[in-house]
Amino acid sequence: MLEGRKAQFVDELMKQDSTKAQAEKEVNLCIERFIYYSGWCDKFQQLYSSVNPVASSHFNFSVPEPTGVVAAIAPQQDALLGLVSVIAPIIAGGNTCIVLASSTKPLCAVTFAEVLNSSDLPGGVVNILTGKVAELVPYFADHMDVNATVFCESDSAIQKMIKEKSALNVKRVVLYDKIKWADATGQSPYFIMDFQEIKTTWHPIENIGGAKAGY
Amino acid sequence: MAKTLIEKRLEILKTYKIYIGGKFPRTESGRYYVATNAKKKTWPMFAWVRGKISEMPLLRPVVPLVAGVAGLHSTADKFCTALLKCSKAAKRSLLMS
Amino acid sequence: MAKAKNNTLKLKFDSARNLAPAPESKSAAKIDPQYDLFINGKFEKPASKEYFASINPATEEKLSMIAEANAADVNKAVKAARAAYDKTWKKMPPAERAKYIYRIARMIQERAREFAIIETLDGGKPIRESRDFDVPTAANHFFYYAGWADKLEYAFPNRRAEPLGIAGQIIPWNFPLLMAAWKIAPALACGNTVVLKPAENTSLTALKLAEIIQEADLPPGVVNIITGGGATGAAIVNHPDVNKIAFTGSTEVGKIIQRAIAGTDKKATLELGGKAANIIFDDAPLDQAVEGVINGIFFNQGHVCCAGSRLYVQESVFAAVVRKLKDRLETLIVGDPMDKNTDIGAINSREQLNIINKYIKIGQQEGADMYQSSANLPRKGFYCRPTIFTNVAQSSRIAQEEIFGPVLAIQSFRTDDEVIEKANNSPYGLSAGVWTDKGSKIFNLTTKLRAGVIWANTFNKFDPTSPFGGYKESGYGREGGLHGLSAYINLTK
């Protein structure tokens, strides 16, 4: 069955106009990318947190927290690698997502959903839909339970529409129209931070022997 | 002989579903579209999700799970494991081919 | 302390009622009869030739006439900022930039008394707050970010921090000088130049800051301060050569800005409204919690985006807390903001007073029980008695909408999960407060509350090192601290 799966990914990429070598390279890159982001899951918080030296008797610290529900329109071209590169940092940061797969090259997105489903990822963390971008984008962008939107194409009319509709509930809008997913620059913890909020907590420190009493 | 039979065999196109909440439901829209490649060869049919708000999964973010100081480690760990499993599943399939 | 009926101690504050007036002197501050626009290092008359009056909301007396900038003025300011960015500021060694920012910080400290007086005259806030909070915190903000200017390479691992260009900054009337500091200091430290517009009602301290910037000999055009109303703000937001919009104000205007810049590459940080939940558990030190709640909602007359305007009290201590709150409410001194004893000053404007009164009426119409202090209000000026509502429904407008005034909506709860659900049931997510003696409960709550700033057993504390900003419809981006730098940089490899 697993053998069939691998054949399926490569086969599907080839059906979508990749050569065998390109397809195998893309599948390999996807795996590397997942390993890369899985490593970040329990590390990026340490890198982007801070203890803030406030000038009062308080213990004060800031940590990143997931933004919430992210609606992503996956890249049309890098059908599998783009999909993985967008989803991985979103869920590595603890968000859930609804992803519209490439409508021109949707084959591996659905197969990928099957991989996710058999990988102990809790149901609902990643949701993959297929359909036409122009028709569905408005519903992604003005849904009141969505906290952030991602768009990966350079179509300026759609970009504008997403930003405008996202204002309805002050969604964070992330545009990935200039990212080369196959390059080394296609992965970094800064992609995780695109879907994080910084929470700052103040806690008083009891004063021993003087100065102001904190409560 | 056998070979020609297979070549002539009429394929049934697979109808791909959508993935919501860990399940593979059919689209409520009842619409499907056929994907094609550059040579206009057709491939399986895809659920054409209708632009309708009720179709969007209403999810509670996994937010409370991650972050903070106390809860942070265990949950991040859980995600890490799940992601690694994704990649391992894909990698195993690659190695075994 | 005297024993009260229900067996809890009642704190005595009676003596405060009889304090003799202790007014700060107006003469220690110089306010010109008319102010022009600060563009390219000089004060210039507005192209519009129009001026509007700035009044003292405590007395309704006119303080000064303020220039009303139009689109031509905005364009002039943006051009000055672009020239300064290209020719000097971007090229200046970061350590030199830092020294200019340090200069501003020092000069604010030196003129602290004058700034405090003007802030209080112009905005109506108690002199005690402008003197002890607004002005020193503003100076500290410049001190803090000055130091970052030449250390940015340490802030973003594996990346280079580049300035964005011109920052268009629009600030509100509740903390005029402090918000100017929050905006200008990090922008300059990161190498950007600035066009800042203070709120129409409270332009004076920003213009005084312009004087300091002039005296500090900042290269002309690095900071431009232009005054005016909504149309002036819109001209900044829509100017094609502005690279970044930083806005603090209402969620309504924040959404308009987000739409307005949709078709552009402009970056934005939005610090918008809030409806913070302050939560008291039955094991909390109640007297301290009550003080925290009072500070949470009545600080700056409740004109605070992170004000603790929703109070959730655990059922078993509900009656005790409400009684203590009412007792404390009676002791608050409402009146002349220039008096050093005043706790609650003037409402910032007639419009805002009307909004607050509208909500007080709505609260009563919706069936909530109102309690107001019996304080006598001055005859002239805009004042509002500190007000609390009990018997409030979660769906009530006074529990859902931001009032931006001294009005508190109180509800009760039984379990932790219930109060988390209620607290998070808001489109806003700026701040929250938790009062309990149990450490593990604090962190259970602070991790589950969806808000950018959480105060545990304290409230309304601020510091330049501490990032501030919201979740959800309270906006995006952070101001303050290491994380506040991100708002003013592009990361490159």
Number of strands of chain B: 3
Using the CA coordinates, give the radius of gyration of chain C. 23 Å
Helix/strand-derived category of chain B reads: alpha+beta
- Helix/strand order of chain B: HEEEH
Q: What does it look like?
A:
The complex is a heterotrimer of chains A (215), B (97) and C (493). With 215 residues, chain A is an alpha/beta fold. Helix content of chain A is 41%, strand content 20%. Chain A has helices at 2-15, 20-40, 44-48, 81-92, 107-117, 133-141, 156-166, 189-193; strands spanning 50-51, 58-66, 69-73, 96-100, 126-129, 148-151, 172-175, 196-204. Chain A has a five-stranded parallel β-sheet with strand order 5-4-3-6-7, with helices on both faces. A three-stranded antiparallel β-sheet of chain A has the order 1-2-8. Chain B is α+β, with helices and mostly antiparallel strands and 97 residues long. Helices cover 33% and strands 15% of the residues of chain B. The model of chain B is unreliable at 51-80 and 90-97 (pLDDT under 50). Helices cover 37% and strands 18% of the residues of chain C. Chain C has helices at 71-89, 94-110, 112-123, 127-148, 176-189, 204-215, 230-238, 251-260, 286-298, 318-331, 350-365, 397-400, 416-424, 439-448; strands at residues 2-3, 9-10, 34-35, 37-39, 42-44, 51-56, 61-67, 160-163, 166-170, 193-197, 223-225, 244-248, 267-271, 277-280, 310-314, 369-372, 387-390, 407-413, 431-435, 453-456, 475-476, 489-492. Chain C has a seven-stranded mixed β-sheet with strand order 16-17-18-15-14-19-20, with helices on both faces. Chain C has a six-stranded mixed β-sheet with strand order 11-10-9-12-13-21, sandwiched between helices. In chain C, strand 17, helix 12 (397-400) and strand 18 (407-413) form a beta-alpha-beta unit. The longest helix of chain C has 22 residues, at 127-148.
